Backbone:
């Protein structure tokens, strides 16, 4: 497959599609000059909102412009959709708040296609099942059968559901006048399972040419370079660029932690994991990583702290429960002092549904329980 690079930037205002075919800095300068003459022009304000949000990662300035638009037009639907998109991009607010704002948009105009496109984005960010996303995409496409954005999102979900030997007619997308940096990223995603991986990477490279500050696109290119070209050093450069644009982007922190781990740079990997926990103290992945590092570094007291936190959050994960028991033993020089705690967690772990349980884990529990009972003849466990 081939693809010709085109300078395309797409914006949405007053339920219209607005395109520019020059570099984004020139677009910004052009819109700013027009706003000097017409400071209350809602279309221009919404285009500038999307420029700040999507191209400059300045969501605070974007929010100020959204507020300005809503003061002029309290019922403006695109301003509300931009607000939802900003909340999704920067992980601000609860999913329920985004869905509530989308409900307001439905009430304003249930026939506006962009509501459904943003709705899919929000559902996707909620980590709902591919089957649910697919069902919704089909439902929305039945409402808008020729919509470029919904059709592309549908193909993206479809490719993810059944990636093997999946081919699509993508000429409509490749030749589109709306193939901006975001849709290029989606085209890359659709084609990433195909044999010709270079085309997918080319789409990601073009996406970054259109928007060098897109932390989504930088993250995706970094991932592809590591996976398909086995160039982890180069991928780290792109991950770091993504974090410069958004230091709190969880996916990049996770990917970077894994990449550092793969090249045995454990120090930097651990720093990424700690940043992940600071951002999201309920990440099961981050807890597992930091627990492993505590074992490696023999930081048993620190490991005990994180292991205890992990089983409070994930009480039915056998391996986390075993790690906590192991840290109890190691952190006290292989002397168990809190018999009740050890016994309670031991029985809790044995009650979990376990696949492929390791014999050594059961032996570890039994040996330590026998030790506890041998130390206190009057100690009994009551279920």
Residues:
């Amino acid at each position: 497959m081939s693809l010709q690079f085109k300078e395309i930037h797409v914006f949405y205002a007053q339920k219209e599609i607005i395109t520019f075919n020059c570099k984004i800095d020139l677009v910004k300068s052009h819109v700013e000059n027009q706003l000097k003459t017409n400071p209350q022009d809602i279309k221009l304000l919404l285009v500038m909102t999307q420029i700040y949000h999507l191209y400059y990662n300045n969501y605070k300035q974007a929010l100020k412009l959204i507020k300005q638009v809503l003061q002029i037009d309290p019922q403006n639907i695109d301003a509300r959709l931009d607000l939802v998109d900003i909340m999704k991009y920067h992980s601000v607010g609860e999913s329920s708040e985004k869905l509530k704002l989308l409900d307001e948009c439905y009430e304003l105009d249930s026939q506006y296609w962009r509501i459904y496109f943003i709705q899919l984005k929000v559902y996707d960010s909620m980590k709902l099942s591919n089957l649910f996303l697919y069902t919704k995409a089909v439902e929305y496409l039945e409402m808008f059968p020729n919509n470029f954005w919904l059709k592309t999102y549908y193909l993206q979900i479809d490719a993810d559901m059944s990636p093997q030997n999946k081919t699509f007619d993508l000429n409509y997308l490749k030749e589109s006048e709306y193939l901006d940096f975001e849709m290029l990223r989606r085209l890359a995603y659709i084609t990433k399972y195909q044999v010709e991986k270079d085309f997918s990477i080319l789409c990601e490279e073009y996406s970054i040419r259109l928007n060098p500050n897109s932390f989504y696109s930088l993250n995706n290119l970094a991932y592809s370079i590591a996976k398909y070209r086995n160039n982890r050093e180069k991928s780290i450069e792109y991950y770091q660029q993504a974090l410069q644009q958004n230091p709190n982007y969880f996916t990049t922190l996770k990917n970077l932690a894994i990449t550092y781990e793969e090249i045995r740079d454990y120090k930097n990997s651990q720093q990424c994991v700690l940043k992940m926990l600071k951002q999201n103290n309920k990440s099961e992945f981050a807890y597992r990583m930091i627990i492993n590092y505590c074992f490696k570094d023999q930081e048993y007291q620190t490991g005990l702290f994180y292991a205890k936190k992990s089983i409070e959050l994930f009480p039915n994960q056998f391996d986390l429960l075993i790690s906590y028991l192991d840290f109890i033993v190691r952190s006290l020089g292989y002397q168990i002092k809190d018999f009740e705690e050890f016994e309670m967690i031991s029985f809790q772990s044995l009650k979990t549904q376990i696949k492929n349980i390791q014999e050594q884990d059961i032996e570890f529990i039994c040996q330590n329980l026998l030790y506890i009972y041998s130390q206190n003849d009057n100690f009994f466990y009551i279920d």
